[in-house]
Amino acid sequence: MTDHSARLAALRDQLARQRLDGFVVPLTDEHLSEYVGGYAQRLAWLTGFGGSAGTAVILADRAAIFTDGRYTIQVREQVDAADWQFVGIPEISPADWLAEHAPAGARIGYDPWLHTAAWVEEAARALAGRDAVLVAVDANPVDAIWTDRPAPSPAPLAVQDDAVAGASSASKRAAIADWLVGRGADAVVVSALDSIAWLLNVRGGDVDHTPVALSFAILHADGATDLYVAPEKVRDAVRQHLGNSVRIHDRAGFAAALGGFAGRRVALDPKGAVTAIAAALTAGGATLVAERDPILLAKAIKNPAEVAGHRAASLRDGAALTRFLRWVEATCPAGTETELSAAARLLAFRQEGGLLRDTSFATISATGAHGAIPHYHVTPESNAPILPGQLFLIDSGGQYADGTTDVTRVMPIGAPTAEMRDRFTRVLRAHIAIATAVFPDGTVGGHIDAFARRPLWEAGLDYGHGTGHGIGAYLSVHEGPQRIAAPNYPGGQALEPLRAGMMLSNEPGYYKAGAYGIRIENLVLTVPRAIAGGDPDRTMLGFDTLTLAPIERTLIDPTLLTDSERAWVDAYHATVSSALSPLLPAEDASWLAGKCAPLAAA
């Protein structure tokens, strides 16, 4: 029996002790975070799955793990098929599966600090058809058997300087207070960690790759704010920064405090807050005002200081990545490097600048067949040598005090095949289609996703992930509410109108299972576009590309590009060379100049 098989068996024993016939284990925490601290990695501990999104459902006689198209290959490599059924979402949801497989009259447990009220309603409806019930547990049964579960991080809070943030915390809190008054609400509960960090101009170190602190906040209509956080995290500089209008409380007291709003109207995001918060407020006599977290949109529309900071971060990050790409070309064909050693080398280049705070996610260093796993995560067990004849995909980013970066490039190890060049060029055309898109203000991301897919669809190809996600300002590398994705893509944010100031990724791809993966990713800023002869009363938007790094020219087949597409590549490369060359050693700058030469000269 494997460790994970033994853990599954132990969980079933624990469920029996708690008089439960099943249990649902999502990959999240009490803040519904995408990336979670080690203490909340219940899904990985139980199943072995290392992706960033998934859910497990355990019954007495069967178990299923649910993942989306990004993890179709990865979940099968990491999770034992003898113990788990693999189920794809959104085609089949955990609630759908329970409706089919839960025993009649079953008691299915869930942790109310890990699910939304909407999920609870959906699952309860599904179970009702089998006369089964959903049961909120007071103690998570996974925690009961996870004897070496890590403790939450003790990392202290740090101040995010107002000059970098572009606005003071006091002004942000005043704006949210005005929002509350406009809705006749007395307070709003903020549970998303990046929303709290943005609101208070603080950062933390409790989650790998995301500079946030485990905390909750309640902002009142007069602007006063109660922050619930471990007291030892708040040092004198942070207390002085927050001032008297932000009252500090122990995070352990948050749940009890929710009972103190009797007769008051409290705003809560029904999609962004766990059901335990809603239940505690209601039990205490509060009236819930269902509103989306008001910080989401304010945080998504970057101010001039945040844009300037990101441009500065992109320069230093692009210089580090360029040095790395030259290293890959010179070193990896010898066959002596591996996915892990390459990731370490890129990290070293980024660290040489002295300003890197962290990587913005676990670097995807993937060669050959591993590149066909969009969110592959290299481990000592999976680490593969980078060999001639392969494509090497590197998707990585940095966390800097002035910006968060995310970029993907692909390098051939030796000479690429004609098929590789064809597929790469189609992905490049898809990338250019987004980079050059022009659309009316308020167009939703789901409407432009197909722009990217057309060059692939024309060849009977596609990719199983979204085309773009929002990104934070020294915050989460995946930030809503904006997204470029098909409307039915998991996450439900593809219908958010795009507005000037929003940053997104532009990352179409192609993946040939068992062979290679291709993705070209830059970050872009949504900006107004003046259209000659257009309707003067209609605001049009487009994208400015922020990321600066060469796109591998030996993988481009210029004959597949239109004149305008070739012109875009040449103009982008001219910008890259001009911006990065002054930051590079002479040999790297010379190499970059060759990589950025006009395609017509190829």
From TrEMBL:
Family annotation (SUPFAM superfamilies)? Creatinase/aminopeptidase, Creatinase/prolidase N-terminal domain
Question: MF terms per GO, please?
Answer: aminopeptidase activity
Q: What class of enzyme is it?
A: hydrolase
Alphabetic keyword roster: Aminopeptidase, Hydrolase, Metal-binding, Protease
Q: Do you know which Pfam families this protein is assigned to? A: Creatinase_N (PF01321), Creatinase_N_2 (PF16189), Peptidase_M24 (PF00557), Peptidase_M24_C (PF16188)
Matching InterPro entries: Creatin/AminoP/Spt16_N, Creatinase/aminopeptidase-like, Creatinase_N, Pept_M24, Pept_M24B, Peptidase_M24_C, X-Pro_aminopeptidase_P
Q: Where is the Peptidase M24 C-terminal domain?
A: 540-599
Q: State the family named in the UniProt similarity comment for this chain.
A: Belongs to the peptidase M24B family.
E.C. numbers: 3.4.11.-
Domain named Peptidase M24: residues: 310-525
Full protein name = Aminopeptidase P family protein
